[in-house]
Amino acid sequence: MAANAVLRLLRQNEIDPRQIGFLGLGTESSTDNAAGAVIVRGMVDQALGRMGLPKLSRNLEVPEFKHACLGGIYALKAASRYVALDGGGRAAIVVSADIAEYERGSSGEQTQGAGAVAMLVEQTPRLFGVDLSRTGSASDYRGVDFRKPIGRHFIDGYAPRTQRLHDFPIFNGKYSVQSYLDETAEAFDEMVARLNTTPIRVFNDMRAIFFHRPYHLMAVQGLAFLYVRALAHMDGARAELHDLCAEAGVEIDDVLREATSPSGLQPGAGTGVGSEDVARATNAAASLLRKRAHFQQLLRDKMGLGSNAMRDLGNLYAAALPAWLAAALEEAVESGCLAAGAQMLAVGYGSGDAAEAIPLRLASGWESAASKIGIADALGKPLDLDQELYEELHDRRRIPDALYVPRDEFAIARVGTLYRSDFQDLGIEYYEYVA
Predict the structure, then answer these.
(1) For 141-200, how does the pLDDT look when each residue is reduced to its tens digit (9 = 90+)?
(2) Cβ-Cβ contacts under 8 Å for 71 (sequence gap 6 or more)
């Protein structure tokens, strides 16, 4: 998926591969613990060579970034620094690619998804600028949050029904949501301070706001949580906050305390520890706020772009936030609702946990770049699975020959099986470009 996205980015935007000096891969789904982005570059080179086009520069950095769903954003920041500091006029490519898969019957099953998004990073942006000097960063260790410990594969009781290789995470849903809200708020607060503004003014000034979006409600929860905290930080909004707290049945002093004090959210250890709601009053007020008409309008105004397309994508882990940005900007070209210079906000998150709040600004002539994104084309040929076939694919990877035929994309031709003293390729995937 990552190689497909990079190749399409190069071809659709007529980019000279020789001018790329950095190829960063953000993922938590890599099938190799030693190599990642360099495999992508090898696949892309293979396809470019078959097309008679120049290959990627030999002088190319190929790092892989891993931090749950935040790996792609960390890759974007690193690529931006490369272009700004030592790129020597060359450009960078960041590709976020992931597979979000859950055990059947788990609470995460309905959020499943997979995909990749590739982004070109240049000194003079064609789509939007990234304001690195005013980003907000935050991290803290949440031990029983979403994890993928290697040892789980060798412990009895892990996904016993699934007979193929699988990568189901270990997660505690309610605790993970609290971790997400807490770290997102911390990163947002630092960004607000570096912008020398107020939270309410950020909501007013930003023409569009994008959160990490594993499923629709989580982004809505994030905005509502930050908005209640914004009211707590604004003296002139105390009446609105008082009314909200009274109807929610919580004390305004508790919301004020939660908004100005460390959360106290612990890493957790053992059965059930760490599940307590340390922002109970804020969450209660935010839950009520989501039902109010003016907040529903705020959602439509600030987070409406690309929302419908995202409902068709499922969770993409590291690719979820860039996919939403892509869908929103493609939709904005058609609606004409955004103009050059418009301010936007991207809030990324990775379980474990860490968050980034990044101010963005639409570039001059951004419509030309946005019109080449191709979200609609990427979703243009869906396959319908009935329940029986879905369960068979999920549990055993039984793929009927006629179900899907690769075209104009990469596929795994075979997997190596040799493990001799003179030559080894056991488990190595051999890719081919299928024209």
Answers:
(1) 988 888 888 888 888 888 888 877 788 888 888 888 889 999 999 999 999 999 999 999
(2) 26, 27, 28, 64, 65, 96, 318, 350
Q: Where are the alpha helices (DSSP H) in 304-380?
A: 307-310, 320-335, 366-370, 375-378
pLDDT beyond 70 at 276: no
Question: In this model, does residue 369 exceed pLDDT 80?
Answer: yes
Alpha-carbon span 155 to 158, nearest angstrom? 6
- DSSP string covering 226-270: HHHHHHHT-GGGHHHHHHHHHHHT--HHHHHHHHHS--------S
Contact 315, 293 (CB under 8 A): no
Q: Which of 412, 409, 411, 392 is nearest to 400 (CA)?
A: 392
- Number of neighbouring beta carbons within 10 Å of residue 124: 9
Is 389 in contact with 158 (CB distance < 8 Å)? no
- State phi, psi for 388 to the nearest 5 degrees: -60, -45
**Angle formed at CA 181 by CA 211 and CA 30, multiple of 5 degrees:** 60
- On the CB side of 115, CA atoms within 13 Å amount to 22
Domain boundaries, the chain: 2-396, 405-435
Alpha carbons 35 and 163: distance in angstroms, whole number: 26
- The helix or strand, by DSSP H or E, that contains position 359, with its residue range, turns out to be strand 354-362
pLDDT at residue 52 is higher than 70: yes
Token match 């003016």: residue? 294
DSSP conformation class of 31: S
More confident residue, 326 or 277: 326
C-alpha closest to that of 145 among 319, 320, 350: 350
Q: What is the pTM of this model?
A: 0.93
Residues 2-396, CATH architecture: 3-Layer(aba) Sandwich (3.40)
